[in-house]
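Assemble and predict.
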Amino acid sequence: MDPEVPAVTVADLGILRAVDIDDQGRAIAKVTPTYSGCPAVLAIELAIEAALRQAGFDPVIERILAPAWTTDWITEEGREKLRAYGIAPPVAGSSSKRALFGEITVACPRCAATDTSKLSEFGSTACKAQYRCNACHEPFDYFKCI
Amino acid sequence: MPAAWVAALIGLADDHLILGHRLSEWCGHAPMLEEDLAMPNIALDLIGQARGLYTYAGDLEGAGRDEDALAFGRLERAYRNLLICELPNGDFAHTMLRQFYFASFMQLFWQETESSTDVTLEAIAAKAVKEAQYHRRHCAEWVIRLGDGTDESARRMAEAVTLLAPYTGEFFIADPEAGGAVEAGVLPDTKALQPAWQADIEQVFAAAKLVLPENVYAQKGGRSGLHTEAMGHLLAQLQFMQRSFPDMTW
């Protein structure tokens, strides 16, 4: 589970790219961090290591920088889990720079209304912005696209 | 990438660490809750970018210095950050204008670095460019809101323009340590970024009813380790724990 969004797994988010078993029987977990300053990276790597150890593997964590992580890697299942948790998932296919800075429609994760407004570009964690639904008046987090 | 360019990477990392530290000083003091979240969030991005650059510089150098040794273990003269990054925060207008200048510059810098011949820098740039764009947009909105706001906000923003004017020229002075790296297509030629930067600033200033001063003397020295009076005070705070308890972790 992601420590800051405990509704989705790191595989759902596309942070855990692959786990390979090498010829010495070690489990090589390939991890791509989200934001440069994401404070959860270390916690995520430790959790992956602990999970692999618990499953009886000898784990090695490998940090992969290229290609850079993008919100497009969040799986369909991950997007549904985010929505169910009350976080609007990133607008699909929107990691292109034009979409990032153009006008986007973010649907309310509670009532699905598309009449929403942005409250702040920065939210409770580096990866989220704050929105409010103009239909049900609930504030909600939006997972920013990068 | 040759180890000769390590100093250029460290200078770039220092820009981000020092400015990130400055921004973090706003935590708990911002004029509104949203900005209390925004500024430390931007600081986190900058410090994260610094970590990537320090780690890579330390690996290339091969002398066993890791990101912590580079961030906390050097004396003032060894820091190579641009002077604008270490200036005291001033008021909110001053901080936002400085951040807008820096983010606009870094957006252009990272865009060029995305086609670096060095794969690690290319990867760092691919992520950082999106973050810099996000910061630039946020700060540009504040420059416009305050510059074209009340009499007091406009006065403060105009003051910030005057105070920061001598410190923007250093963005475009070629780093003597980066010479070979620019020729090899590893790092961008910062001098070539000036027209695009100026056009970006002027476009936002037109909406903010601000004027960019011309022919201002450019303060320099950061890239050769000659800092302002503010730097020692900043480092005293930044390094205190590591100086008192070397190699501490928690």
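The two ends of chain B are 34 Å apart (CA to CA).
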